[in-house]
Design goal:
Structural class: mainly beta
Order of helices and strands: EEEEEEEEEEE
Helix content: under 10%
Radius of gyration: 13 Å
Shape: globular
Strand content: over 45%
Distance between the termini: 40 Å
Largest sheet: 7 strands, mixed
Oligomer: single chain
């Protein structure tokens, strides 16, 4: 089994920054695709950013230029660096692992005040 634990969420003013972390542990044998998602109240979960096993990044159009996904291979950890945060970024942020998103973390709350 694989466990994913997100951290780093919190309350921030609009225009501010946060860095989320997602640490993976357990039976990890290869470098996997990992993704960040978010789900705002009353909305569907949406993909924010992803990083492939070869460290190729992709982003939702709404966050391009403001969010960056990075990975520390030796720590089995990915990060989401969020800058110029907007109130509409308020959501629970989740990370997933695997091309088919086989594993999920429990989520971390991000609240951006206007």
């Amino acid at each position: 089994q694989v466990q994913l634990v997100e951290s780093g969420g919190g309350l921030v003013q609009a225009g501010g920054s946060l860095r989320l972390s997602c640490s993976a542990s357990g039976r990890i044998f290869t470098i996997n695709t990992m993704r960040w998602w978010r789900q705002a109240p009353g909305k569907q979960r949406e993909l924010v950013a992803g990083i492939s096993g070869g460290d190729r990044e992709n982003y939702a159009d709404s966050v391009k230029g403001r969010f960056t996904i990075t990975r520390e291979h030796d720590k089995n950890t990915i990060y989401l660096h969020m800058n110029q945060l907007k109130p509409e970024a308020t959501a629970v942020y989740y990370c997933s692992m695997g091309v088919a998103n086989n594993y999920w973390g429990q989520g971390t709350q991000v609240t951006v005040s206007s």
